[in-house]
Amino acid sequence: MVKHGILAVVLVIAITGESRAADSIIAKSGDGGASIEFALRPDGGIEDLPHYRVTFAGNEVIGYSRLGIELSGDQPIGGTCKVERTESRVERSEYTQVTGKRSAVTSHAAVQVVSLKETAAPHRQWEIELRAFDDGVAFRYRFPRQAGWDELAITRERTEFRLPAETKAIALPLNGFTTSYEKRYDSMLAKDLPQNWLVGLPLLLECSGGTWAAITEANVNEYAGMYLAPVGNGVLSARLSPRPDQPEVAIRASLPHTSPWRVVMLGDRIGRLVESDIVLNLSDPCAIEDTSWIKTGKTTFPWWNGFYETGVDFRRQEGRFYGS
Predict the structure, then answer these.
(1) From residue 261, how far is each of 81, 218, 280, 284, 296 by CA, in Å?
(2) In degrees rounded to 5, what are phi and psi of residue 281?
(3) CA 16 → CA 25, 86, 129, 285, distances in Å?
(4) 141 φ/ψ angles, rounded to the nearest 5 degrees
(5) For the segment 100-139, what is each residue's pLDDT rounded down to a tens digit?
(6) Can you name the residues that pair with 63 across neighbouring β-strands?
(7) pTM for the full model?
(8) How far is CA 76 from the centre of its chain?
(9) What fold characterizes domain 3-323?
């Protein structure tokens, strides 16, 4: 899908200064239904650890869940922190797309950027960006370049999704990171998901209060794809696809660097998830200035059906079709 011709109106309100650990920083959708909250909370006897929480229509969809990143040869990010500053803004944009569910799309999000600093050495700085739309919420990690830290080597994410006990999951179990993504979905309570499963995205959730949700990701760029692993009691932990050449590492990148969005699509009925534009709205704008040459048409899928057309204006090469 392509989004093009962006017209944006942005209201920015910056707030500086340290925040108390007990303070919550909340991004709430324009209609007030969806919200994502950041808070420093105790966990396992340790104070001021970064957490987030998601609610929709007054119901908790994801309880307070840990945030963090594990690094190769370095201390993890996500230990005791302090909030150095926050930035609040509202973003609204309108654009058109060549193909998709609708040609004219509107994006309207409340944004909170939380700048954090470790309270213990090496005192690294990092950020969490939160966004709330009417049809869901999202967050991502941002790693600024700083003295003594200019490269990123991520082994795994500590990102959690803590689901209430009554949440039902419709999950796709996979055998590994290099499967055809074609297994059958299984339905069960999220707390009963087997701990030996690797779950593919999106993960569909039927929540209390008539809420439907789906966990997925958006704007994956220079980063590993995310899967989920049940760890018991309705808690799912992020799993990153390892590099084929260095399986012990998932991402190597220069700083500054930004993770993909971790997305929770939300709706009062399952059809709302199909209608949602949140993943598209979280993706980068179209890099093609002139899209007038893009036309709809027909093709075939020879990998699946085993044949291809002859006598047409396409040539076959290495199992793919290319325009002549």
Answers:
(1) 22, 5, 11, 11, 29
(2) -65, -25
(3) 13, 6, 15, 29
(4) -90, 140
(5) 888 899 999 999 999 999 999 999 999 999 999 999 999 9
(6) 162
(7) 0.88
(8) 20
(9) Beta-galactosidase; Chain A, domain 5 (2.70.98)
